[in-house]
Structures are given as C-alpha cells and as structure tokens.
Backbone:
C-alpha cells in the first residue's frame, strides 16, 4: 500500500515540480509579493524600491557563510575522490548483491557519513552510482532519493551549522547583543534530544525506505536512463599521471612531490591537535573545514592529485554557487521588509513553555522553503526565537535558559533539515555525481520522499516537544 501511495505522489511531483533554479525564481517573486504587505512605506512605489534594495543587498550579505558552506562541500568531495576511499567503495560494492541491500546500505551508511559532514553525501552518491552500474534491478530515481534522504541526519552531526554557529566566537547573535556568550555543543549536539534524533536517522529511516521500495524497475535502471555511451572518468591518480611529461622535469617532480604536501598537511595536523588540546571538543565551521582540508591533503599525497580533486569538486558545486545568492536575496527581502520577523513573531506569540520547541521546529521547516540554509535561515528567525526563550525562562537559571536556547535552535535545524526533502536546492550536490550522463530533475526524485517527510515530521514533532532537557 505504501509503495502504491508513494508512486502516486511521485507521479504528482513529476507533473508539477519545477527545476531547482525555477523553484528559486518562483520563491523570489512569491516572497516579494508577500513582503509588500509588511514593508513600511507611504506608497506602492516606495515599497517596491525598498524590497528591491533588500533583494540586491541580500545577494552579498551571506558571501562569507556561503563560502564556508562551499568549502565544506568541496573538501568533503576531495576526500571522497581519494584512492583509499575509492578502494573502500569498491570493497563495499563487492559485498552487496541485491537492490534491497543497496537501498538499505545507502540509507544507513549515508546517515553515518552525514554525521561527519553534509558534504559527505558525495561519497554516498559515488557509492550509489557504482552499485547501480554493477547490480541489476535497481530503480535509479528511487536510489537517488535514498542518497538524498540519507544526508538528512547531518543536522545531528559535526557540521550542524546552527550548533556550530552558536559555538563560534563573535557570531552575529553575540554582536547584536542577543547572546552574551557562545553556547557549547554539549548543549546542542550532546543533548538527549539530539541523541534520540541520531537513532531516528540511523535505525528508523532504513526501515521506512524498505517499506517504500518500488515493485517495478522497468525502464528505470541506470542503463535505461543513460544519454551517453562514455564510461566513467579516470581516477584522480590516473589523471595526475597523464599530465607527466615524457621526459624528466623539475616541474613534474614538484607537482608530484608527496613530501611537499605531506609536510604542509602535518603542520595542519599539529595545529588541529593543539586546537583541541587547548579548547576541548569545541567545533565550528572553520575548524571543520580545516580538518577536511588537511585530511584531503594526506589522502591524496601529492599536490597534483589534490589539485585535480579540487577541480572536480569545484565543478560539482556550480549549482550551489549560482543559486545560493538568489536565496540570500530572498533572505534580504525577508529582513528588509520585516516579513521574516513578522512570520517568526506570529509563531512566537502563540508559544508556551510546552510548545516553544515545536513552534521553533515548525518555523524552521516553513522558512526553509524560502531560505534553504540553516545558517541563513537562523539569521532571519534566530533573534526572535531566542528572545522568545529568554522571556519564557525569566525565572529559570542561566544553565536552564542556555539549554532551552540550544533546544529551540536545534529544533529550527531539525525542521529546516526535514523540509529539505521537499526543497530541491541541495539535490544540486547529488546530481553532478548521480546525474552524470542521464536526464534527471528534482521532479523525478522528490515524490519518493513525500511519505518519509510526513512520517518523520510527526515523529520529530513529538520528540522536540516531549524529550526532556
């Protein structure tokens, strides 16, 4: 029954779901129209100018954060392209024999990898494509949906951007006087709520996907969808060798000097040890990027190999690069017009000590459709959400208030992450790997995720409401 229902939703999304870029353009117009009702100005033309100015300025407001997100994706992709990881993928692929095993392994392994970084979904995508090549009977669009679904648990892991933002010195909340100090990840990532969410993604999600596996794969295997006859590209190591001159050259010796890159990487490793020795297990976006950078250098060994991996990784995020500013522009509209504050104020006004976490969760899910970035979204609604908690916790201790702030912040993150199942923006990370050589769009994938979205929404809503601090 679930399989048939899932197919109906898939058919509906195939008919009505536009591409990720068109989705961004439509949301820009829709947000602009709603903003007309909240922006303060004397006449219609002034309102329009204010909205346009907010839209334009928003394009550039998140460049720093956007670059951090891009670097997390790129450095994770570089790790995925290394020879040790490739050999691991080959080993895993030899152990898997049936399509059902493929779907379940992808969900479980993807969930575990996402705890390291949401950028690690690239590794899951590479494994998924390799399995689709080797094993018959795999419904490829459903497999793409599984890969995309698997990274949903990143919000509980080491690259959880809101949790890391709260623990980053001089973040915008501290600069605006909303917070007095950083909030340790022990209150967010180490909370009882987050640990239960981990189990949800790692244990419950594979069972849910198993119940939704399509009965038929006719015409949906990778070989049926291919539009080219070319094989997969050479490995990074093979491409590096192809650049060598037919005679000995100093340039080749330096380009392939493992001692040079390893020396610099070891300096980076020394600093990482120094960092954690002095600051404990304090994670933020910058140290995570630096860790991935150093690991990638160590795994690829030579400068030439790492340069090639970086080149491939950079082409992998082209969709994110050019679409992210549009969502930053939408954020600019919401901030300048007061629309984002209005939405969060309405939600906050109905919050109680019993419902504040659910309200935050709901806000995170709704606003994510306009701003598919946990950090960018939190820049819009975070201040109102935190102020709400501070008012509700007037008679509580500072430790209890801190725990509540961490809870609502993570609730926003959970809502944001879950609604990504229906928001196609981050499919742009998966498509360059799994969509290579085939025609595939968001509409071919999102329909398979609608039922998981509904089921997880109910479960997560109960968890954020009733799991004790």
Residues:
């Amino acid at each position: 029954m679930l399989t048939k229902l899932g197919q109906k939703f898939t058919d509906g999304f195939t008919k009505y779901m536009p591409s990720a870029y068109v989705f961004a353009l439509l949301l820009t117009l829709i947000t602009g129209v709603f903003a007309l009702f909240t922006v303060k100005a004397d006449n219609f033309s002034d309102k329009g100018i204010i909205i346009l100015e907010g839209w334009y300025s928003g394009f550039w407001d998140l460049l720093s954060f956007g670059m951090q997100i891009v670097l997390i994706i790129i450095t994770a992709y570089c790790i995925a392209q290394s020879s040790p990881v490739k050999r691991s993928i080959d080993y895993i692929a030899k152990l898997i024999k049936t399509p059902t095993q493929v779907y379940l392994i992808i969900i479980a392994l993807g969930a575990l990898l996402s705890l390291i970084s949401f950028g690690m979904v690239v590794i899951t995508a590479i494994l998924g494509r390799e399995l689709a090549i080797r094993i018959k009977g795999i419904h490829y669009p459903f497999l793409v949906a599984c890969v995309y679904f698997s990274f949903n648990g990143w919000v509980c892991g080491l690259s959880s951007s809101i949790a890391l933002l709260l623990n980053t010195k001089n973040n915008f909340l501290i600069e605006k006087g909303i917070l007095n100090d950083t909030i340790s990840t022990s209150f967010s990532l180490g909370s009882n709520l987050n640990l239960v969410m981990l189990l949800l993604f790692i244990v419950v999600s594979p069972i849910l996907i198993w119940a939704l596996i399509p009965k038929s794969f006719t015409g949906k295997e990778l070989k049926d969808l291919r539009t080219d006859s070319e094989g997969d590209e050479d490995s990074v190591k093979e491409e590096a060798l192809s650049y060598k001159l037919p005679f000995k050259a100093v340039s080749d010796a330096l380009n392939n000097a493992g001692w040079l890159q390893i020396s610099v990487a070891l300096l980076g490793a020394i600093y990482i040890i120094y960092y954690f020795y002095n600051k404990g297990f304090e994670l933020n976006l910058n140290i995570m990027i630096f860790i991935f950078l150093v690991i990638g250098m160590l795994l690829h060994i030579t400068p030439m190999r790492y340069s090639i991996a970086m080149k491939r990784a950079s082409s992998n995020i082209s969709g994110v690069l050019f679409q992210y500013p549009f969502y930053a522009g939408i954020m600019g509209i919401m901030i300048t017009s007061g629309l984002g504050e209005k939405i969060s104020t309405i939600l906050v006004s109905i919050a109680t000590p019993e419902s504040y976490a659910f309200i935050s969760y709901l806000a995170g899910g709704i606003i994510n459709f306009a701003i598919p970035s946990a950090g960018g979204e939190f820049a819009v609604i975070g201040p109102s959400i935190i102020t709400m908690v501070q008012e509700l916790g007037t008679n509580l201790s500072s430790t209890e208030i801190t725990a509540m702030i961490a809870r609502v912040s993570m609730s926003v993150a959970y809502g944001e992450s879950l609604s990504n199942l229906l928001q196609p923006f981050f499919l742009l990370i998966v498509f360059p790997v799994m969509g290579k050589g085939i025609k595939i769009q968001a509409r071919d994938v999102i329909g398979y995720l609608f039922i998981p979205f509904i089921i997880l929404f109910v479960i997560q809503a109960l968890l954020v409401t009733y799991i004790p601090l």
